[in-house]
Design a protein that fits this description.
With about 140 residues, the protein is mainly α. The protein contains seven helices and no strands. About 90% of the residues lie in helices and about 0% in strands. The structure holds protoporphyrin IX containing FE.
Length: about 140
């Protein structure tokens, strides 16, 4: 769990943060899904996972060996589901839809990337729906 927090720090803050940090990029992409992409990967990825690490650490202190043994299976499932769910959100929806919004923002302005006209384009609708399974994996499992 601790390692995944570090990996998400590298991806979310390091890659996706720097990607939107240059003023000329930031001017156009602000508020698009590239922001949400960075925010989810950095915030949930690093600090959300770190909160889960702390919880597991505390549980280890108060649980018996036998109980910890039983917990391992659930922790393993939770580890993979949290990471796969978050990766799915980022890869299937937030990053690609942000990339689609960026050229539209430079051409037609930010307001247009948020309009119903843009959001109802077939590819944007597909990207919105393919996120659903990733969200469900993250939330339910
Ligand atoms: C773990 C560290 C980080 C966390 C938790 C984090 C979290 C966030 C969050 C939640 C937002 C969204 C704010 C909003 O919606 O108004 C944001 C925006 C932003 N972050 Fe980070 N961030 C981190 C590191 C970085 C780094 C290292 C960079 C650049 C090198 C960066 C650049 C930006 C920029 C440029 C925005 C504004 C984007 C926009 O409004 O369009 N962040 N960050």
């Amino acid at each position: 769990m601790n390692i995944c927090s570090l990996v998400w720090n590298f991806i979310g803050a390091g890659i996706f943060g720097f990607l939107i940090n240059l003023p000329v990029v930031s001017y156009y992409e602000i508020g698009t899904n590239l922001t949400a992409d960075h925010a989810h990967a950095a915030f949930m990825g690093e600090f959300g996972m770190l909160a889960v690490v702390s919880l597991v650490f505390a549980l280890r202190q108060v649980s018996s060996e036998a109980h910890l043994e039983k917990m391992q299976r659930y922790l393993r499932v939770s580890f993979w589901r949290l990471n796969l769910g978050l990766s799915g959100m980022v890869v299937l929806n937030l990053f690609p839809s942000g990339v689609l919004q960026l050229p539209d923002a430079t051409k037609n302005g930010f307001w247009h990337t948020r309009s119903a006209d843009f959001s109802s384009r077939p590819l944007m609708v597909v990207l919105e729906w393919v996120r659903l399974p990733a969200d469900l994996v993250f939330i339910l499992l």
